[in-house]
Structure prediction request, 400 residues.
Amino acid sequence: MATICALAVVLAGVAAYGWHVGWFTKSTSNGNTTTPQTSQTSALPRADVPSPKKNEPAAQAQRAVSAMTLEERVGQLVMVPLLAGSDPSSLASTITDEHIGSAILIGNWNTGADTVKTATAQLQGYAPAGNRLIIATDQEGGQVQHLTGTGFDTMPSAVEQGTMSADALRQSAGTWGSQLAAAGINVDLAPVLGTVVGDRASNAPIGALDRDFGLDAAGNAEHGIAVIEGLRDAQVGAAVKHYPGLGAVSGNTDFTTEGILDTTTTLGGAEAGAFDQAITKTDPAMVMMSLATYQSIDPNNPAVFSSTIIDGHIRNALKYTGVVISDSMSAEALSSYDVSQLGVKLVEAGGDMSCIGQTDYVKPIVDGLNERAKSDPAFASKVTAAATRVMALKIKMGLA
Prediction:
């Protein structure tokens, strides 16, 4: 959901937590508490990640995940949607029964911050006390600002943000982030780091909507870094999107399967390099994958399902150990795939979290992940590794 997906987290219950400069983590002397494993959990594979020091978030995450059932691990890999106007109670059983770890607010939430704060608090009430929800929204600015009304500034488009100095943009992003945090949002699925390489009006997902900074790749990277750091100043995580860029396609992956083959972008090129620079310099909370296909990189898979891009480049070349999230799994670009295999294919490629824009996609994706993990130990190990990355992010944020 190139124009919809974004991620954020409620801060309820973190009054006792301390925020570290650059990243935010829970300050506690008791980082070693674990829940005793049952015979069911002890038989599950452990995360395929290096063994970190005892009190690092990754080590804490390993201990937390080792105490989870397989179904609980799978639940951490799914982000469920709450549409504007919907009662949060509509997600109660889904969050509880499927052990869901994240939610996203989408649509036109135009009645102000108090409404959002009430909704996010209610959603958090369905989560376990020791494993709070990540709650997200899409707050880019301009035509893509899902939360409006009293308590939320009207944000300029990204193109307008591109005319600001990096320092001024960081300060503004800090203000916008503070408004999100006050409403219970902790991760914003922004900024867009795609670079439009042709006619802007012909680039439906980005240029036509002024979602990029309107600069060259280097300028887009600089301004993207400013947004990431500004959000972090407000204790809000960022998700750079849509890797490796939607600036060279004509079709919007939300709405079409046509015009979504990129024939020019390469790994190591300037356009993908803008993302790489932001990732290596800021270690953002998340990297969101594009649903387009990149002929010069992996012509057989959209980026979201490409092990060449995720495992090969983002994980191995860039050494990124954070959360890799999909663009909306319910987008038209993926309509030819079996819904039950969407989450499976993301995890197989090295990704973590399925962002879902339609509620009827949730159960098939969850069921597909569970069924594959129960029958395939190697895939279950990938689920464990992915859940560990999600939990490490939550621990850094003080959510777990």
Notes: The two ends are 28 Å apart (CA to CA).
